[in-house]
Design brief:
Length: 420
């Protein structure tokens, strides 16, 4: 852990309302309302009011940096106040706090304690502001909330009495430097040979599971794979909250919905998968499976519907083991004797990603699922594996070789790479 270089902000609004910040902010709001034009330059209005205040009452603003004050007021009115500097910093991947007086962030997978200090009221106000665009809420009856901010960042909030004393907030910023497999190659997350193979596998319609731990880049990798889907195909994605961003012409994105104040209106991932099957998909995608929705996805894949998903797992084989358990959450009548062979016949590839010690995200292995089960163990084939820190060609092959040939891919040529 290291201290963040984010500068301390100017004092925020005080509860008594007697800080220069409050006086200037009130005047700016009045000026914006008076002009009544949505297209005005907010920064120009802020500077004008600060100049006027400084000339009229130099003792009020004489000890405050006008540039810094203008920036803070702009962040307060159009952004996320003291946190805006972290949102604007592309090197920051995540922002969180366990108590408002200690704000943390992460850069390249490493935690940093910033110099930003909030009070309880301001912290809650910022959360409420973030939730406005999502239409979601957090209160005593619903003490957890997942939401997506306008910039694509993912917000998670937990409040007392589930937590002890303070609102606990995590904001995972939408930092996606890669949109396609070639971008992952450029970043060093994937080798050219593995990228070429994965592109072909997507085109021919193999069912792919992306696995990895938290912050391993699963969503980014899944999005890059989906952008290899032929443009003529229709993609339906189902997510807890919108995270995937695709560059496909025929794409429908759906997300879950929490129950309303009356306890009705909830839409689960299971419901989304069922509805998606009625929408003429060529590819069905569940952003991440965590519970019984894994059963609905597996049944769809087993019926011949090409698809993809992601799952938290420490390795590609662990991902298959986890997928063998999750469908059983749907009910006691769902047993391993059904689930395990269904996975073996439905899943074609597992791509495992990890974050290295220096925070770099990399694809660690790609395995094929050959379609056989021996002693309740799903047989797999190593296609690419990490050797001496490098993703290298292994000896295995993917299933459905005929599909590659039918789409004009020479599988032997795609995999003709030194095992190095």
């Amino acid at each position: 852990m290291v201290a963040s270089s984010v500068p301390a902000v100017l004092p925020g609004p005080s509860s008594a309302g007697d800080h220069p910040f409050d006086e200037v902010l009130d005047r700016i709001r009045e000026a914006v309302r008076a002009r009544g034009n949505a297209h005005i330059d907010l920064r120009t209005v802020i500077n004008d009011v600060i100049d006027a205040e400084g000339a009229r009452s130099p003792q009020v603003l004489g000890q405050v940096d006008p540039v810094g004050l203008a920036q803070q007021i702009e962040h307060e009115m159009a952004g996320f106040g003291p946190l805006q500097a972290l949102f604007a910093d592309d090197s920051v991947e995540e922002i969180w706090w366990n108590e408002p007086s200690r704000i943390w962030c992460a850069r390249r997978g490493r935690s940093e304690l910033t110099t930003i200090v909030l009070n309880e009221g301001l912290a809650r106000d910022l959360v409420e502001r973030m939730l406005v665009s999502s239409g979601r809420r957090v209160d005593v009856s619903s003490p957890f909330v997942d939401a997506v901010l306008a910039d694509g960042s993912r917000l998670h909030v937990a409040i007392p009495d589930v937590t002890r004393g303070h609102w606990v907030v995590n904001i995972r910023k939408h930092v996606a430097p890669a949109a396609r497999l070639d971008d992952l190659v450029a970043l060093g997350s994937l080798t050219p040979a593995a990228a070429a193979f994965l592109h072909a596998a997507v085109v021919v319609g193999l069912n792919i599971v992306v696995a990895g731990g938290t912050q391993a880049g699963k969503t980014t990798l899944l999005g890059c794979l989906l952008n290899s889907v032929p443009a003529v195909e229709r993609i339906i994605t189902c997510e807890e909250v919108f995270e995937l961003r695709l560059d496909r012409p025929d794409w429908v994105a759906m997300q879950t919905r929490q129950a309303g104040l009356e306890g009705t209106g909830e839409i689960t991932l299971r419901r989304l998968v069922i509805e998606a099957l009625r929408m003429r998909p060529h590819r069905l995608v569940v952003g991440e499976v965590r519970q019984a929705e894994a059963l609905d996805l597996l049944i769809a894949l087993n019926s011949g519907m090409p698809g993809m998903t992601s799952v938290h797992a420490n390795s590609a084989r662990d991902a298959l083991s986890k997928l063998s358990i999750l469908p059983m959450l749907a009910g006691e009548n769902v047993t391993g004797s059904f689930v395990v062979p269904t996975i073996a016949s439905s899943v074609d590839l597992v791509v495992h990603a990890q974050t290295t010690g220096n925070g770099h995200r990399r694809v660690r292995e790609i395995i094929g699922v050959v379609g056989r089960v021996e002693s309740e163990v799903i047989e797999t084939s190593d296609i690419f594996t990490t050797v001496n820190g490098e993703l290298s060609r292994a000896a295995g092959h993917p299933p459905h070789r005929d599909r590659f040939a039918a789409h004009g891919f020479d599988l032997g040529e795609l995999l003709a790479v030194s095992h190095g």
